[in-house]
Amino acid sequence: MKNTVRLAKKTESEILFEKIYETYGIKLCDEIIGYLKENSRGVPQKKDLQGTQDLFVASFISVSEKDETNIFSLARLLNEESQGTIYIPVALDGFGGVFCLKFINKELQTVEYLNREYDREVFVCQDFKEFLEMLDLL
Hints:
Largest sheet: 5 strands, antiparallel
Strand order of the largest sheet: 1-2-3-4-5
Radius of gyration: 16 Å
Number of helices: 4
Shape: globular
Helix content: 25-40%
Order of helices and strands: HHEHEEEEH
Structural class: alpha+beta
Number of strands: 5
């Protein structure tokens, strides 16, 4: 029997994160990828974001290809008319609003809340860790 190397099959979430990299040139850090994989479609116990007036998180974004609304499909919608700014969704508010990592020139800048229906963009915090802290998850 010949020596063979069996390549591990990529998971659905790995495929979606690869698509984000191939499409936008954005490689999310391992901590963010790990958290989103572990909490795909997860509902936080505490939904209100500390320090904001009226923002809350209904669920984290799906990282499964089987879900019609997942991290990549929503990123494509959010970035259709992008000019140097890329939004990568991480959570939803349940009313059409999305919490996103905002990248400018492929560098992570902030976490923003976007609601396209009301043409609203709101600064939430500086990074994903702070976002999780606002939900008492760290």
